[in-house]
Amino acid sequence: MDIKTIGGPFILAPLAGYTDKAFREIAHEYGADCSVTEMVSAEGLARDGEKTKTLLERFPGEEKLIIQLFGPSDDPVRRALPKLIGYKPTVIDINCGCPVPKVVKTGAGSALMRTPEMAAAIVRTIKEFTDTPVSVKFRLGWDEKSMNYLDFAESVTEAGCEMLTLHARTRAQGYSGKADRNAFRTLAKHFEGSNILLFGSGDVFTPEDAATLLDTGLSGVMFARGAIGNPFIFRETKEYIQKGTYTLPEREERIAVALRHLDYAIKYFGEKIACREMKKQLMAYIKGIPASSKAKNAIGEATSRDELVKALTSLR
Questions:
Q1: Mean confidence (pLDDT) of the chain
Q2: Nearest 5°: phi and psi at 223?
Q3: CA dist 316 → 197, 252, 310, 313 (Å)
Q4: Are residue 233 and residue 304 in the same domain, yes or no?
Q5: Same structural domain for residues 231 and 255?
Q6: CATH assignment of the domain containing 277
Q7: What end-to-end distance do the CA atoms of the chain give, in Å?
Q8: pLDDT by residue (tens digit) across 117-155?
Q9: Last residue in a domain, options 210, 243, 276
Q10: CB-based contact 207:246 (threshold 8 Å)
Q11: What distance in Å separates the CA atoms of residue 79 and residue 85, rounded to the nearest whole number?
């Protein structure tokens, strides 16, 4: 597996409640080389759950798509694979990083940092069933006293994993504190000369942040919170890597793209659901625009497309 398999080094990370096909489509338009789905329950997929299937839908023309599974063991993954393969994932990613208690208490997500042998078993199960490349997204460890990310990475790559994405925080940190960028350098050095693709995630809010991660020797970057309301970061990062400079979007472009994103969501999910779910995205699009507090209040109270459009266009 090489970088061409996923289209390039800049990926929209999996974000529960955010990276639906509307967001992925906008990110693609602004330069994302590939995207990862919201995390998909292996058990839900095995049971053919309707909500689970919605997470796997592609936007028109979305050829490359990394599908992320979560589960506590290889059993639900084995049962989910026949259905998963029908969606033709570019890569199958295993979530070993989610710190949310309701996921961790089942033994999934970052709980797998405590059982690397089970994470490896999940990878082997997928490799036995399919030739689709496998990746693992993981953390530094459970807490600062158990920073086992290198040993963990060795376990899953020996099992057949071809791509690693490190979120350089522990499970105990959640999303607080700072991502440890030295860990990216250590990971890159550890796998120097191998064919393993290495990605970094955590505190990537600017093109400069992305460039710093690449300078550690990583193959690429996953943009997570830094892309919410800001698909422009993909365009900016590519400009920065090529030219050493980049152009920020003007207010008009930010509002126009927010409206387009809203309309994609309405097209795919219907007005009622889209207007409810898009509020957090729209708030992010207008963050930092002077005198936007009134518009944010209007977005919070809106129940229809017309009301959301009125709130956004009031900033023009």
A1: 97
A2: -95, 125
A3: 43, 7, 10, 5
A4: no
A5: no
A6: 1.10.1200
A7: 46
A8: 999 999 999 999 999 999 999 999 999 999 999 999 999
A9: 243
A10: yes
A11: 11
**What is the tens place of the pLDDT at every residue in 33-86?**
999 999 999 999 999 988 899 999 999 999 999 999 999 999 999 999 999 999
Same domain, 143 and 179: yes
When divided into structural domains, the chain yields a total of 2
Residue 257 and residue 228 share a domain = no
Q: Please give the residue range of the domain that contains residue 185.
A: 3-243
CATH number at residue 212: 3.20.20.70
pLDDT tens digits, one per residue of 233-268: 999 999 999 999 999 999 999 999 999 999 999 999
Q: Fill in the amino acid letter for 268.
A: Y
Whole-angstrom Cα distance, residue 228 to residue 13?
10
98 is catalytic: yes
Which residue, 243, 265, 296, sits at the end of a domain?
243
Annotated catalytic residue within 34, 96, 98, 161: 98
Q: Residue range 286-292: average pLDDT?
A: 93
Do 195 and 225 lie in a common domain?
A: yes
- DSSP line for 67-111: EEEE-SSHHHHHHHHHHHHTT--SEEEEEE----HHHHTTT-GGG
One-letter identity of residue 164: L
Whole-prediction pTM: 0.96
Residues 192 and 303 in one domain: no
- Please state the rounded mean pLDDT for residues 85-105: 97
